[in-house]
Design a protein that fits this description.
This protein is mainly β and 133 residues long. It is built from 1 helix and 12 strands, in the order αββββββββββββ. The strands form 3 sheets. The protein has an 8-stranded mixed β-sheet, covered by helices on one side. The protein is globular.
Length: 133
């Protein structure tokens, strides 16, 4: 096991935020059903439920080894099912990271008020909080 200095943890989180912000407006966060792929280079798995636009800049704050993403705008779900995971992409559509997703209070890095989504449902209150171990 390794233990990084706080300045290194914050720098790594800033690198993630910079990757999401690359290309300006147009970054997205997509929720899918099922389990996430083994790595972010693989094609997305499961059914696409909703594609949320990501504000630029992405990071609301980076401090103490935690990146808190800015609030995402309300967005209508295009699919229905149980949220399993999410993928964060930059403005060019390049995958930056895959994240576990869950209900508020679940401890997942991507949370939303309800994990059962229905097509036409207005999705709001999505939170992305990335913590360096």
């Amino acid at each position: 096991m390794i233990d990084l200095a706080l300045s290194i943890k914050n720098a790594r989180l800033q690198a993630i935020a910079d990757a999401v912000d690359a290309g300006g407006e147009g970054a997205t966060f997509t929720f899918y059903t099922g389990s996430r792929p083994a790595n972010v280079q693989e094609a997305a798995t499961g059914d696409e439920l909703v594609v949320l636009p990501v504000p630029v800049p992405f990071a609301e704050a980076i401090q103490n080894g935690v990146l808190t993403g800015k609030a995402m705008p309300k967005t209508m779900a295009t699919g229905g099912g149980e949220v399993g995971w999410g993928r964060l992409r930059d403005a060019a559509g390049v995958a930056v990271m895959d994240l576990d997703a869950g209900a508020e209070g679940s401890g997942a890095p991507a949370t939303l008020p309800a994990t059962q989504l229905y097509a036409g449902m207005l999705i709001e209150g999505v939170s992305l909080v990335l913590a360096e171990p």
